[in-house]
């Protein structure tokens, strides 16, 4: 049975799946994100286990549990080795090229061979660290100018921006002392700001 997922819940689910696939989530984060999905109206047997189990699973077991959740909500499984996976592909190459052209030193910080969501996470961390160091603020602004223009692109690119760049950015801001959402909101274009507020639960 497929659950009727509204947009914010859909993005939360994909964000959890992304974090599981790239092995970038610890047991406490896994339980917290699963509990957040349940609190927002998505409750499946496997998700409840994920939110409450005291067991620390390895990566393969966590991925298997994630795929159980996806099956229960009517989504296809994710496979880290499948380049055509609904989560990992296709690629947002044009956006990365545009960012690299507008902000060359920022583009040096990621591996272009990685998946879109890994690059997005690297980009988000880099933007926060540069803000903290008051380094290359003009380049940071140019990145957000590119992101604003890319939001007119196809659905995958918007998904990478929302569940990759913006959600990871929100997490990195929350974990970084002395940095606030307002510091970055001042650099967003209008559509980026709208999606940011959606991803951070402000609307």
Which helices and strands occur, and which strands form pairs?
Blueprint: H1 7-21, H2 27-39, H3 45-52, H4 59-72, H5 93-102, H6 104-107, H7 116-132, H8 137-150, H9 155-174, H10 181-185, H11 190-199
- What general form does the structure show? globular
Alpha-beta content class: mainly alpha
Report the radius of gyration as a whole number of Å. Answer: 17 Å
Helix content: 55-70%
Number of strands: 0
| Head-to-tail CA distance between termini | 28 Å
Uncertain segments are none
Mean of residue pLDDT values: 84
Note the main sheet: none
Strand content: under 5%
Order of helices and strands: HHHHHHHHHHH
Number of domains: 2
Count of alpha/pi helices? 11
Please provide a brief summary of the model:
By secondary structure, the protein is mainly alpha-helical. It is built from eleven helices and no strands.
